[in-house]
C-alpha cells in the first residue's frame, strides 16, 4: 500500500512539472507568444543643409526620419547654435516641419531627435546658412550675359540687335 501511495505521489509531481514546463514550450524556454518584441531604434534625418537670405522663413524637414519597426515617431527639434544677436525661435519643436526666421547673417545649427515610443534616435543636425543679399542702389545696374559656353558672366552687357539676337 505504501508503494502505491509513493507511486501516486510521484505521478502527481510529474504531472505538475509537465504543466509548469508546458507553459514554457517543449524545450523549457518561453514560447513564441511569450517572447518580448525587440525594438530597434529609430533614425533621425534632419534634412539637407540650406542656404537662405536673411529674414527668410526656413522650413525644416524631418520627413525622411524612419523607424525599422514602423512605429509612429515623435519629433524633438533644438536650435543648438545661432548667430550672435539672433532671436530665432522654432514655431513648434515637436512638429515634423517646424519653421523659424533666419534673422541674422550666419549659420544656424539645428538638431533633430526622434522617438518611437520606446527609445530615442541618435541626433541628426542640419545647418542653415543665412546670407545678406545687398539690394542695388538707385541707378546701379548689374548685367549678366551668356559666354560661348552658355554660362553667364557678370559685368558683360549684351548688345541687342533689331531682330532681338544677342551679340556679345
Description:
It is a single chain. This protein has about 170 residues and is α+β, with helices and mostly antiparallel strands. The protein is about 10% helix and about 25% strand. It has one helix and ten strands, in the order αββββββββββ. It has one helix at about 1-20, and strands at about 50-55, 55-60, 75-80, 100, 105-115, 125-130, 145, 150-155, 160, 165. The strands form four sheets. It has a four-stranded mixed beta sheet, with no helix packed on it. Strand 9 (about 160) and strand 10 (about 165) form a beta hairpin. It is elongated and about 75 Å long. Residues about 1-25 and about 150-155 have low confidence and may be disordered.
Blueprint of the fold:
Layout lengths: L1 H21 L27 E4 L3 E3 L14 E8 L17 E3 L4 E10 L8 E8 L12 E3 L5 E3 L4 E2 L5 E2 L1
Parallel strand pairs: 1-6
Antiparallel strand pairs: 2-4, 3-5, 5-6, 7-8, 9-10
Give me the number of helical elements: 1
Alpha-carbon Rg, integer:
34 Å
User: Within the largest sheet, what's the order of strands?
Assistant: 1-6-5-3
Query: Which band does the percent of strand residues land in?
Result: 25-35%
Instruction: Return the average pLDDT rounded to an integer.
Output: 77
Structural category is alpha+beta
Morphology call: elongated
Distance between the termini: 122 Å
Sheet with the most strands?
Answer: 4 strands, mixed
* Element string (H = helix, E = strand): HEEEEEEEEEE
Helix percent band:
10-25%
- Uncertain ranges: 1-24, 149-153
How many distinct beta strands?
10
Amino acid at each position: 500500500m505504501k508503494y502505491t501511495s509513493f507511486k501516486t505521489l510521484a505521478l502527481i509531481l510529474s504531472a505538475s512539472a509537465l504543466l509548469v514546463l508546458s507553459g514554457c514550450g517543449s524545450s523549457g524556454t518561453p514560447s513564441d507568444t511569450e517572447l518580448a518584441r525587440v525594438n530597434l531604434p529609430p533614425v533621425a534625418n534632419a534634412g539637407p543643409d540650406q542656404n537662405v537670405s536673411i529674414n527668410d522663413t526656413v522650413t525644416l524637414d524631418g520627413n525622411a526620419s524612419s523607424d525599422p519597426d514602423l512605429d509612429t515617431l515623435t519629433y524633438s527639434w533644438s536650435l543648438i547654435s545661432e548667430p550672435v544677436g539672433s532671436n530665432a525661435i522654432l514655431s513648434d519643436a515637436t512638429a515634423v516641419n517646424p519653421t523659424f526666421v533666419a534673422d541674422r547673417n550666419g549659420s544656424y545649427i539645428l538638431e533633430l531627435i526622434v522617438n518611437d515610443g520606446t527609445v530615442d534616435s541618435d541626433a541628426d543636425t542640419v545647418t542653415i546658412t543665412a546670407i545678406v543679399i545687398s539690394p542695388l542702389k538707385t541707378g546701379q545696374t548689374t548685367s549678366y550675359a551668356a559666354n560661348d559656353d552658355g554660362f553667364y558672366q557678370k559685368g558683360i552687357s549684351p548688345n541687342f540687335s533689331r531682330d532681338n539676337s544677342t551679340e556679345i
